[in-house]
Amino acid sequence: MRQFRVATWVNGNEDGMLIETCAGLLDNDEPEACIRKEAIEETGYEVGEVRKLFELYMSPGGVTELIHFFIAEYSDAQRKNGGGGWMMRRLRSWSCHSASACDGWPAARSATGKRLSSCSISTLRG
Questions:
Q1: What residue stretches are annotated with the Nudix hydrolase domain (predicted)?
Q2: Annotated binding site for Mg(2+): which residue ranges?
Q3: Residue 40: CB partners within 8 Å, gap ≥ 6?
Q4: Which pLDDT belongs to residue 88?
Q5: How many CA atoms within 13 Å lie on the side-chain side of 93?
Q6: Which domains does the chain have, with CATH numbers?
Q7: Once rounded to an integer, what is the mean pLDDT over residues 78-102?
Q8: Which DSSP state fits 78?
Q9: Which whole-number Å values give the CA distances from 102 to 5, 28, 97, 109, 118, in the listed order?
């Protein structure tokens, strides 16, 4: 997803846009149910089998949020809507092969913890 994040804009990211992974709050859902819901809302794809990769705390010194990382394959046949999120989020959904998803991943101005973690695992697994 490409999404505007004011914190990056304030810190020098010219357009404030970040490339992020699909994500959302659990809202009392189980993690797998949440990622399925967020995938269709944000990307427009209804994913089939999802595989949990790991869980981690992004900033345990100040935040209690535990993040669950999943991976899923999808095809054009699984597209159910145009995605883009809800309300005024103006998400821009795009897809790419796993190798190109991590191109330039160490770049500080475009990095998020979730994206870096996902790319690190992808790179390690080949």
A1: 18-79
A2: 23, 38, 42
A3: 46, 47, 80, 81, 83
A4: 44
A5: 17
A6: 2-125 (3.90.79.10)
A7: 61
A8: G
A9: 20, 31, 9, 14, 9
Contacts of 75 (CB under 8 A, 6+ apart): none
- As a whole number of angstroms, the distance between CA 42 and CA 59 comes to 24
> Two tokens at 107?
């770049």
Start-end of H helices in the chain: 6-10, 31-42, 98-101, 113-125
Beta strands in the chain (DSSP E): 2-4, 17-19, 50-57, 66-72
Ramachandran quadrant class, 125 (left: phi over 0; alpha: psi -120 to 50; beta: rest)? alpha
More confident residue, 60 or 109: 60
**Binding-site residue set:** 23, 38, 42
- Dihedral (C-alpha) 33, 90, 7, 122: value to the nearest 10 degrees? 50
What single letter denotes the amino acid at residue 57? Answer: Y
